[in-house]
From TrEMBL:
NAD-dependent epimerase/dehydratase domain residues: 9-254
Organism: Penicillium argentinense
Family note: Belongs to the NAD(P)-dependent epimerase/dehydratase family. Dihydroflavonol-4-reductase subfamily.
A Pfam family: Epimerase
Protein name: NAD-dependent epimerase/dehydratase domain-containing protein
Highest taxon of source: Eukaryota
Length: 332
């Protein structure tokens, strides 16, 4: 039986469902007993030996994962999805940089010291670690890195992207310098849309990426559509499958995967909402609202994710419609 340690975040709930479908024995890290119990209760038909949890209260704490990685039988793989993504920045280092960087290096150190059977650690990175907002290349691919500096990271507008960049670089540096028994693969998605998992998400605590859909269906863009920001997206279920395929496919080791389904604008989200949920028409901006998607936008190369991991991406229409259904189900 192959055994997995999964560190939890929004994406992790979808990763968990795929791991269980594929027959993996899975231990999930959670911050509280209450959250762990909710996960178990949400999978009533899963045998208890196939799904359990361990509490890691603060991923940035020194030694946070040391007990979590110890297991009998031992772990074969680790999927590390936990990292902060929100816009409530008080202290860039404490709120973002430490949890992202120390959380990533901390789990790698713990695996090397206490889990010698682990073959691969798959890390959720981000397009934030690829994008160069100052000078977009002609085509983005896995070879690109965000050139952000530590000084620039002190600006609240840059700190999220910096945290993902520094955390991923720290992971590759760890493997190069420490030469552990395992290799690493990273998954680098842009904006992640897709259905929320009701047992983990309240409407107030909906993940940051889906907040724009919540805002649309609650009428917060009725007067004016907000700027889109980054024009790339992917469905959370495709990101989740990428994580699982990255442990199932041998060639995935040592590789980055730029996981994206393509382009979108907030205007596209509004148009799909109008089409898929006509009952929300009164909350939506006028049909002739302009789109801010640039005509000459950078290209994208996601071939590696398709060829190595075998991903077939969901459409924006399906992702938005399913996301809205899940938001309405929790009271949006």
């Amino acid at each position: 039986m192959v055994k997995i340690l999964l560190t939890a975040a929004f994406i992790a709930a979808h990763v968990l469902d795929i791991l269980l479908e594929h027959g993996f024995e899975t231990v999930v890290t959670v911050r509280s007993e209450e959250k762990g119990k909710r996960i178990i209760e949400a999978h009533p038909h899963t045998p208890k030996e196939k799904l359990s949890y361990v509490i890691v209260k603060d991923v940035a704490q020194e030694g946070a994962f040391e007990e979590a990685v110890k297991s009998n039988p031992p772990f074969d793989y680790v999927l590390h999805t936990a990292s902060p993504f929100h816009f409530n920045v008080q202290d860039p280092v404490k709120d973002f940089l430490d949890p992202a960087i120390k959380g990533t290096t901390g789990i790698l150190k713990a695996v090397k010291a206490h889990a010698p059977t682990v073959k691969r650690v798959v890390i959720t990175s981000s397009f934030a670690a690829i994008v160069n907002p100052k000078q977009h290349p002609t085509v983005y691919s896995e070879k690109d890195w965000n050139p952000v500096t530590w000084e620039e990271a002190m600006d609240h507008a840059n700190v999220y992207r910096a945290s993902k960049t520094f955390a991923e670089k720290a992971a590759w540096d760890f493997v190069a310098n420490e030469k552990p028994n395992f290799n690493v693969a990273t998954i680098n998605p842009p904006l992640v849309l897709g259905p929320i998992v009701h047992y983990l998400n309240s409407l107030e605590a909906v993940n940051t990426s889906n907040q724009r859909l919540r805002n649309i269906i609650q009428g917060q863009m009725k007067e004016k559509i907000a700027p889109t920001g980054t024009f790339l997206w992917v469905d959370v279920r495709d990101v989740a499958l990428a994580h699982v395929r990255a442990i199932e496919v041998n060639e995935a080791g040592g590789q980055r995967f730029f996981v994206t389904a393509g382009y979108f604008s907030n205007k596209d989200l509004v148009d799909i909402t109008r089409q898929s949920h006509p009952e929300l028409e009164s909350k939506l901006p006028p049909k002739d609202s302009p789109s801010d998607l640039p005509e000459n936008i950078y290209g994208i190369d996601n071939q590696r994710s398709q060829q190595v991991l075998g991903l077939k991406y969901r459409t924006l229409q399906q992702s938005v419609s399913d996301s809205i259904d899940s938001l309405l189900a929790v009271g949006a």
